[in-house]
């Protein structure tokens, strides 16, 4: 039946078509009507038919409006205009977002969500976030959320669990598709295939599905424009993969999961949720859920070892739990400790996390992400496994890769977007433990020994040259090691000031320890002794004396393997200083004497000067101040012959200090005043701070407490600027002594308490002496 509607039908049809983003030609193609006829209907020049109205309803999701307009026109023609008009108004206003409208009641209502995951632990905050995001957009706009993260983090489990929780909020149904964006080659579900599946589910006859993704997407938007639906798009490869699959209705929500960061969608307004690794407590809870709390409690230590080896990756923890649960109730079933021992003994932890199923095998799911990388990003991913971690700076990555900054940054960005590495801090990248294992397997399999060793040496060069530059900024009196020119491709960090140097040392502390171990393991003994030497001053100032001892032992062994006398002497000096700080004076004396003999054999006067300086400090600790002054004067003679101004100034200060220690306070002040004059303009904050401390001590001994306190405060300010906690504590103790001698016990207590806090932090035995002072107040 044709109905002449006076233009109301045409106007509504045009509005709905434009809302759906379709041209007349696209809609005509979908409806199997001519464009000319459709144009005339929209203009009111041709009558609408009930068949056309129903087809338009199916395509545009009009909520019954077009059918009602046809019914109203037919009723008017039959003399029942008023009733028909009332019915049209009712239909037109029926846009509720909770109950289904009568016009939609006969349409398909899909329920495509996969089964709810049985175990979902530690995702409470993410579930609340997803709900809050959906609430914020409820009924006002279509809401899109991306859930991103590395393989095995539990993105799909989170999305499906949440979808089941809120399914009742979407009365027009829930659509789901696994797009297999990171599956093996050939398994990808393209946008067109997914759209055809959705259209089929929504009742579009195969013959009415238009050709081309754009037309199909327009039809899908039309069908969802007036509906309240949830669409879960799982395992998307990239933003373009899912854009055609987004619904159009204000009551619709789309949730996308992907290993890519989908930054384009986020930039367009999508919300982002990034589930993290499981905490140890959450991982224990997951094991308890799967194995029972009794078994977990009985083998808690082994369970924690397994959790640590899984690195908090939910997939890995679930695999471990499934393996352990498989033997439950069987005779001679392996214990959790057996499973932990197997994982520790395996050639690779990934072998123990193999399931034989490509969708759950950890190595396999990692491989899907790796295969999607460009050749450049894949090469960097492998080489990053050579870095000892825990984090790698961009400049270190450039040196390791041997490529330009631009190319390295592009590869890092690609790896980060694929969640194969993570940017833990600004421009610092790290692996998840299991991804590091996977990358290490790849670099051994794909890259030959020459490639690996060349990359390692570039990385060692990066850290050695940077550490040396930092130490020069840190201690202007420090004499640099003679280093070979930089290899092309090696880029040190840009360090220009003492503050830069201190920040770099603090940031890279754990990395540097790993780099030294890597140098030994790779057979690069030259770096294995040079790197510890460049770190000695930082370790000393920050109280890392145990680490200083260990790396000095490493340096000594490397120097002896090289039969390098100068290197051995240098390593022994570092070891001796560590023993001195640790109060093992006999061991310190042995190392210093060995170093002195080696420097004398080598004719190295600068080395001899430094050893005499260390021997002076050692004699002071043993209580022989006269011997300490003798060694300090020996050192000064060598420094005046071969040292620079900063070295001479430091040595003058040391001589002045020991003059004060033996009671010659006038000579002490003269030496220290000359030292300050030499320090002027050198920027050696540590040297000046030490000299002010000596001046303060001399004034204290002379009874000039006000001048002593002024000098001590200048010293403390300097030590705080460079972060030298140990020497700051020593000067604070002496400032407290001066305050006590001046009759101000309150000020003395403040200084001593500050010193005690530092010494306790450093676990230094001098803390007890300070505590005794405080008890005496």
From TrEMBL:
Residues 87-110 are annotated as: Disordered. TPR repeats lie at residues 569-602. Keywords: TPR repeat. SMART domains: HTH_XRE, TPR. Residues 13-69 form the HTH cro/C1-type domain. The keyword Chaperone does not apply. The keyword Protease does not apply. This is HTH cro/C1-type domain-containing protein. It comes from Catenulispora yoronensis.
